[in-house]
From TrEMBL:
The lineage of its organism: Bacteria, Pseudomonadati, Bacteroidota, Cytophagia, Cytophagales. It comes from Emticicia aquatica. Residues 423-531 form the TonB-dependent transporter Oar-like beta-barrel domain. Belongs to the TonB-dependent receptor family. It is found in: Cell outer membrane. Residues 142-220 form the TonB-dependent receptor plug domain. This is TonB-dependent receptor.
């Protein structure tokens, strides 16, 4: 018994020695000015131990020996984490960083910590590329357009949509620029992925309210993507590998501090994975590649020259969309490419005055290939756009003025379509007349500081459009519908002759009044004219959809936007709140007649109608820009309605000339994004999206004829898809100890559509004999898990 007592006594003493406590003390101070932080929280081992600092910022704790996880928190400061090994008494001083001194990490209203309050602009958003790389993305691909859809007022018609709809506008009413290069098809794989190279992009600005006078040619918005400037003194490499594509970007100086080049490429040949993503994609063959380059030359202290190039190529094959006309094709193959270039000369005349001159060339060539049954021949449907532009801006800044004046000229050459039969004997060759036009513009703008509280931005753009020959214009009987029966004569115009011209003033106005240093109210108005648009009868335009310039019969779209808002920043510029309301009226929108077919039609005005669109809404957004957890939430109420009534006949009206919901009318939408930064090892992000289902046309009945049922359609867009909602998750895993190393890498694990919501992209009606059924097309009906590897050198 004595031996047992002795053994217990020894074990108790050994345990006491093993669990001996040591003193852990120190000071917590501000990293900027070193002031002590009173009542800062010290959390030990996730709440097992803890304490707070005194009035001198001092803490003194007793902890058992061993390893401990330390977390220090103080309101308005970034939490600090550290692992300590306690083998004796330790005194450790901590410096923690105030959030107001951190760089912003999320979408902000405009550049600068307080510019959303101070500048007289509404509806201007900047998308942080750094944040974009942390957000969840479909199949692991960083996507600028999907990031934009987390903004208020920005939606799409579905997961495979070819673009975005901004404040009730169509996809072609957005001017999409990449270093001044217009992008006519902004997606790969029919809308599954963006065509903008995120690896090479440095910033994205979206103007959905006030639009600077230097921009024109579109009725709804401007999205301006800038490629990063290559480093003049360091060699850099970045890239990544994912299930969908492989990408790389290289920057290298050619002449140090004088000349450098950046090359970024991306390619995807992993279409064998598509059936895994969705069974609906089992018959699809798809691949794409894009390449961007940028050269920066610092000629001297006053002159710089920048040149950018963009090339993309897509191939997409499917059996779902069928053939064209009576061509007996085994599949439909879409082969389209873009080849573009821009160059800019910047001349600093003085510290206050500079001149920028830019030339742009863009060539977009979409093709549809139809392999004939039992033949090696492919019938080709070919179209194209050639775009040439030269523009020059003069910028002048003085104490209370920021002045810009400029001129531009843009030439459009459009090939609406030609059918090339190849060796086929059953297909006739068709060539639709080509379209030639010229758009010229001058603009002036001045941002004036009227007082410390009031600032106004006033500007105007005057544009003039000329539809040019050679070409034939068909005239129609007055007061009758435009069709083959009312055609009366054809007027022929020679090369370069003006067939029709349009033009007018486009005023721009923004007013800001500060209620206090952190709160302002704003009003804005702008008018924009659009002379070039997509002609389509699908919800989301195909890459081969027809582009059409204004002519004698098709008038340009004219959009007037009135907006107002309240903007408030909380102290430290950590939190932002904004509320904006808008009303937009667009004249001469384009819609199609029932049963319209534009393909290879030499006179598409016989298939088109023009009317009005009214769009209005309220957007509320709250964001946290700095700290351990950043993100934003926003809610939008919006309506977009059309009214088309060119005459009294059935073929000249839509829905009897009454207002009806546009294809992209989604009254309610809610978005939330949260990024949780967990030190240097990993971060998590969540996206949640909800929106009202978009309109579609449901048959009002069916007619049975010779044993088959045929749908009967009355009014357009008389039903809605089910409401849309989706949750995404991303986890970025950084390798430890790489913070100060030249080579850095991390893995990104993503779950797209976490709870597998089967969101309907569209609803189709199918008839088999007299039986009629409807079915939903779902693109992503299950969770999509992806993993990508990213590196930077």
């Amino acid at each position: 018994m004595k031996k047992i007592y002795l053994l217990l006594f020894l074990l108790i003493n050994i345990s006491a020695i093993a669990q001996v406590n040591y003193r852990f003390s120190g000071y917590v101070r501000d990293t900027v000015d070193g002031k002590p932080l009173v009542k800062a929280s010290i959390n030990i081992d996730f709440g097992k131990f803890g304490g707070v600092t005194d009035e001198k910022g001092f803490f003194d704790l007793s902890l058992p020996s061993g390893e401990h996880a330390i977390t220090l928190r103080y309101v308005g400061y970034r939490p600090t984490r550290e692992i300590i090994y306690l083998r004796g008494n330790i005194e450790r001083n901590f410096l923690i960083r105030p959030l107001e001194n951190e760089l912003e990490e999320v979408i902000v209203s405009s550049k600068g910590a307080e510019s959303n309050i101070q500048r007289p602009l509404l509806g201007v958003s900047q998308l942080s590329i750094k944040t974009l790389r942390k957000l969840p993305a479909a199949i692991g691909e960083v996507d600028i357009l999907r990031g934009l859809q987390m903004l208020p007022g920005v939606t799409s018609v579905g997961e495979a949509s070819n673009g975005v709809n901004i404040r009730g506008g169509t996809t072609d009413q957005n001017l999409l620029l990449l270093d001044d290069i217009p992008i006519f098809n902004p997606t790969h794989m029919f809308g599954l992925f963006t065509a903008f190279p995120s690896e090479a992009a440095s910033s994205v600005e979206v103007y959905k309210g006030n639009t600077p006078a230097r921009f024109g040619g579109r009725a709804a918005s401007v999205m301006d993507v800038t490629l990063q400037q290559p480093s003049l003194d360091k060699f850099k490499v970045s890239g990544g590998i994912s299930f969908v594509s492989n990408r790389i970007a290289v920057e290298t100086p050619i002449i140090k501090d004088k000349l450098a080049i950046m090359v970024s490429g991306r390619a995807s040949y992993n279409d064998f994975l598509l059936p895994i993503v969705s069974p609906k994609l089992k018959d699809i063959k798809a691949n794409f590649a894009d390449l961007v380059t940028k050269i920066f030359w610092r000629v001297n202290s006053k002159n710089t020259i920048t040149a950018s190039g963009y090339y993309s190529k897509d191939f997409f094959q499917t059996k779902l969309l069928g053939g064209i006309g009576a061509i007996n094709a085994t599949s439909t193959q879409y082969d389209y490419r873009s080849k573009s270039f821009s160059a800019r000369w910047f001349y600093a005349i003085s510290n206050r005055l500079n001149l920028q001159t830019t030339i742009v060339s863009a060539d977009y060539v979409p093709k549809t290939l139809l392999p004939e049954l039992n033949s090696d021949n492919k019938v080709v449907l070919l179209s194209g756009i050639q775009y040439k532009q030269v523009k020059s801006n003069l910028n002048y800044s003085i104490e209370k003025h920021r002045i810009e004046v400029g001129v531009s000229a843009t030439r459009y050459n459009i090939d609406p379509g030609q059918l090339i039969p190849g060796t086929s004997r059953s297909v006739l060759s068709i060539q639709t007349p080509k379209e030639h036009s010229l758009e010229t513009a001058i603009h002036a703008e001045d941002e004036i500081a009227l007082s410390p509280k009031a600032t106004v931005s006033i500007g105007a753009r005057y544009s003039q459009f000329f539809a040019l020959g050679p070409g034939n214009v068909q005239t129609y009987a007055p007061g009758e519908p435009r069709d083959a029966f009312s055609a009366r004569d054809t007027i022929t115009y020679g090369n370069g002759k003006i067939m029709k011209s349009y033009g007018g003033l486009e005023p721009r106005l923004g007013i800001k009044y500060s209620l206090n240093p952190s709160t302002s109210i704003k009003l804005g108005y702008n008018l924009m004219r659009q002379y070039m648009q997509v002609v389509t009868n699908t919800t989301t335009p195909l890459p081969t959809s027809r582009w059409k310039t204004s002519d004698l019969h098709i008038k340009p779209q004219v959009s007037s936007l009135l907006s107002g808002g309240l903007f408030h920043n909380l102290p430290g510029n950590i939190y932002e709140f904004s509320l904006e309301a808008y009303y937009r009226l667009t004249n001469n929108i384009i819609d199609y007649k029932p049963g319209a077919d534009f393909l290879l039609d030499g006179y598409p005005e016989t298939q088109l109608l023009q009317g009005k669109n009214r769009s209005y809404g309220l957007e509320v957004m709250f964001s946290k820009k700095k700290g351990e957890a950043t993100g934003w939430i926003n809610y939008t109420y919006s309506r977009s309605q059309n009214k088309v009534s060119e005459g009294t006949g059935f073929g000249e009206q839509i829905n009897f000339g009454n207002w009806y919901a546009a294809n992209y009318d989604r009254p309610h939408s809610f978005n939330a994004s949260v990024i949780i930064n967990q030190g240097t090892h990993h971060d998590f992000s969540f996206n949640f999206s909800y929106s009202t289902g978009r309109p579609y046309t449901l048959p009002e009945g069916f007619i049975v004829y010779q044993g088959r049922s045929y749908p009967y359609y009355g009014v357009r867009n008389n039903a809605r898809l089910p409401d849309y909602h989706r949750l995404d998750f991303a986890w970025n895993i950084y390798q430890p100890g790489m913070k100060d190393k030249r080579f850095k890498s991390h893995f990104t694990f993503t779950i797209f559509n976490v709870y597998g919501k089967k969101n309907a992209y569209s609803v189709f009606v199918r008839s088999q004999g007299t039986a009629v059924s409807t079915y939903k097309l779902v693109v992503f009906g299950a969770p999509i898990v992806s993993l990508s590897y990213n590196f930077k050198f």
